[in-house]
Specification:
225 residues, 10-stranded antiparallel barrel
């Protein structure tokens, strides 16, 4: 079985840096997880977007707080969800002086649509289409597209003016021997609303369905993509 990122990239997956292939190349059958620890040199948010960002903290989707040299961790586990979909977690924690902020997501590969769908937050209410590509120096670039909201019988697409377009870049720096990451979220009206950039080291540990720690999988799973 191929990882969801290899399925999305196809032959281009081999163009990724070997360390990036390692980080994005495992699936549930490999019983492997990537655990990263590092520092965000900068976290910034637009104060005009403070209210929606604050609402997002209730579901572990971004947050209205910034700073420099913020310790953080990222946990990527691969498993098969309740609907039989290959899934990868993105559990990000940022340790500020008085609070630990969360930014959680789970990604699945939609075989029917041949695209990665990113469920933001710990209850999978917000589904986002992702465009995945190889960037310079063998890095990976992920850009968000259409966003949909699912809650019980309620479902709708967000108008573009009320969404944020996110661009995630991750690459491996051979000189500094570490992973680098940058995230930039922009809105058509407010411009840049959230961003962070930092570096980290990643270790790869044995995992499995029964070995995934509490708090990694979402509180609920959404079938609609």
């Amino acid at each position: 079985m191929r990882s969801i990122y290899e399925q999305a990239l196809g032959a281009d997956f081999q163009k990724l840096h070997p360390r990036i292939q390692q980080r994005f190349g495992f699936c549930s059958q490999d019983r492997t997880a990537s655990i990263g620890h590092g520092v965000m040199q900068l976290i910034w948010y637009n104060k005009l977007a403070a209210l929606p960002l604050f609402i997002g903290t209730l579901r572990h989707i971004m947050f209205p707080q910034g700073g420099v040299n913020i310790p953080f961790s990222i946990e990527n586990y691969a498993y098969v969800d309740a609907f039989g979909r290959e899934t990868v977690t993105w559990i990000r924690k940022f340790k500020f002086q008085r609070a630990i902020r969360h930014f959680d997501a789970t990604m699945v590969y939609s075989g029917e649509r041949e695209i990665i769908v990113d469920y933001l937050g710990n209850k999978q209410h917000l589904a986002v289409d992702l465009d995945v590509a190889v960037s310079t120096k063998g890095g990976i670039r992920i850009i968000s597209g259409e966003q949909r909201f699912y809650e019980g019988w309620l479902q709708f697409r967000f108008p573009r003016l009320f969404t944020g377009r996110a661009e995630v870049n991750e690459w491996y720096d051979d000189e500094e021997r570490c992973y680098k990451i940058s995230v930039d979220v922009r809105n058509p009206i407010l411009g840049q609303i959230f961003r962070y950039e930092g570096s980290f080291q990643a270790s790869f540990v044995n995992s499995g369905h029964e070995a995934i720690p509490i708090g990694i999988r979402p509180l609920r799973e959404e079938k609609r993509e």
